[in-house]
Structure to design on (494 residues):
């Protein structure tokens, strides 16, 4: 389905595209003049005396919605200032809601990945909570419930944010292992499905260890300390015990110190785990593993391409406990194909029985490049708005009743019902790496395949990013160049 977009002045389109895309996820958006028979959205800004007039028009499958509003011109006359762009976003948001007869984004005109950062910025500037809520609701047009949620999350994780002085000296480390035992149906991560251990892993591991050694030397020389370490992927536990031990040898030699408070391994797929592997991780200092069922319904697990059933999740959690690993994170997804309220209820009950410290509730995002998007089409899946919203609030209710509270939050493009991914934890169960990664107040040095580093300038909390290639072969081939560039970025911080 094609939706023609005619925005005057045209350069305003970039400021509005994300909202229109969110309102009409099934449509291809194309800029240009429309013909009468097209489905189209038009917005024109024109000068009218001392006013600027916004005229909006949507015509889709015979349904027409129109809106006009005028605002005083700024002293500088008609320009595309940030203020004017913000007015245009508010105008288009209201026009889209009116056309759809519903609020398509409970976060109003906010479409970014990290909305809690706005709350932290305002708290830094000395705003009180009531004024922040008023700004979120009246200026950004969030629903009061989402405004309260953002405040709650910010209050929960603010004690973990670093001061500017600490942020110059303390970093976290991410190690990316871009291999999985099979590809999940909804996954767009272009990492490799592990087919031949020796052929696939050996060259990748040598490259990773080289990067770890060189960057580790730099960290030692520059006096940085490591607060948290996170092995993610992919699924790092596809590695055998010998190779995991080699990674931890370098981590202990060059990264982990008395200042390190958390070491996490994403052991997402139970089919990659054994008691002895978890015992090795415990001996290597791992105090948190993520065992991610997504759902505890076996039919769904089969459908989404995971090579394990729910009993193997129970078993993996049992092994982690017997190995003595203190904290367990678990991920769930709301909106999986074929799942209804009953499925969520049984999943929640079984997960609560396992007593994880952290549960992250994801809303299914239908990402380009996933098997799901290719076979089912994005719009069909994104259609289950009410059902997904009910599922998310059911889980919020049940986890808060059981003593979990939300402490980190992020959003993704193409999420069902334009919701959020929300991490819940009990009091001492917060995963500090999750907070640092989402709130972006700490430099994350990321090594390995598909690993994205973030270099934080503590003077103004601005960021620069650096991405290692996701494809293991490209990572290996460009290793020396990317190490040099990463060291250069680290030098610029000091
Ligand atoms: S385990 Fe994670 S990274 Fe691997 S295929 Fe599944 S969703 Fe993708």
């Amino acid at each position: 389905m094609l939706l023609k977009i005619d925005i005057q002045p045209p350069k305003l389109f970039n400021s509005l595209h994300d909202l229109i895309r969110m309102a009409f996820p099934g449509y291809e958006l194309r800029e240009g003049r429309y013909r009468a028979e097209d489905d189209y959205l038009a917005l024109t800004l024109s000068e009218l005396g001392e006013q600027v007039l916004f005229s909006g028009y949507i015509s889709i499958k015979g349904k027409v919605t129109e809106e006009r509003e005028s605002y005083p011109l700024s002293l500088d006359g008609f320009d595309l200032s940030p203020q004017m762009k913000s007015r245009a976003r508010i105008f288009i948001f209201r026009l889209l809601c009116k056309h759809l007869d519903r609020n398509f984004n409970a976060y109003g005109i906010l479409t970014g990945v990290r909305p809690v950062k706005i709350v932290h910025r305002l708290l830094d500037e000395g705003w009180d909570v009531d004024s922040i809520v008023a700004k979120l609701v009246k200026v950004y047009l969030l629903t009061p419930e989402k405004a309260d949620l953002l405040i709650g999350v910010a209050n929960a994780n603010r004690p973990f944010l670093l001061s500017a002085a600490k942020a110059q000296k303390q970093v976290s480390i991410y190690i990316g292992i871009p291999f999985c035992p099979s590809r999940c149906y909804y996954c767009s991560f272009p990492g490799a499905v592990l087919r031949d251990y020796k052929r696939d892993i050996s060259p990748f591991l040598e490259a990773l260890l080289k990067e770890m050694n060189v960057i580790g030397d730099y960290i030692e020389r520059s006096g940085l300390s490591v607060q948290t370490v996170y092995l993610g992927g992919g699924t790092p536990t596809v590695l055998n015990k010998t190779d995991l031990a080699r990674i931890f040898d370098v981590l202990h030699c060059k990264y982990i110190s008395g200042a390190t408070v958390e070491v996490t391994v994403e052991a997402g797929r139970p089919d990659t785990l054994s008691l002895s592997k978890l015992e090795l991780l415990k001996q290597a200092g791992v105090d948190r593993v993520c065992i991610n069922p997504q759902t505890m319904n076996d039919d769904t697990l089969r459908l989404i391409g995971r090579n394990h059933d729910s009993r193997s999740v129970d078993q993996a959690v049992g092994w982690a406990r017997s190995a003595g690993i203190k904290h367990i994170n678990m991920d769930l997804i709301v909106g999986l194909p074929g799942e209804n309220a009953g499925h969520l209820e049984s999943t929640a009950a079984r997960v609560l029985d396992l007593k994880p410290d952290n549960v992250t509730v994801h809303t299914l995002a239908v990402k380009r490049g996933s098997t799901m998007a290719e076979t089912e089409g994005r719009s069909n899946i994104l259609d289950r708005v009410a059902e997904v919203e009910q599922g998310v609030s059911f889980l919020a209710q049940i986890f808060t009743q059981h003593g979990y509270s939300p402490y980190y939050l992020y959003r993704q493009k193409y999420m069902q019902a334009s919701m959020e991914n929300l991490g819940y934890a009990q009091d001492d169960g917060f995963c500090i790496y999750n907070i640092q990664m989402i709130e972006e107040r700490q430099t994350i040095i990321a090594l390995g395949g598909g690993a994205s580093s973030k270099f934080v300038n503590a003077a103004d909390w601005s960021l620069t990013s650096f991405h290692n290639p996701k494809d293991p072969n490209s990572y290996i081939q460009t290793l020396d160049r990317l190490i040099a560039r990463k060291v250069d970025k680290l030098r610029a911080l000091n």
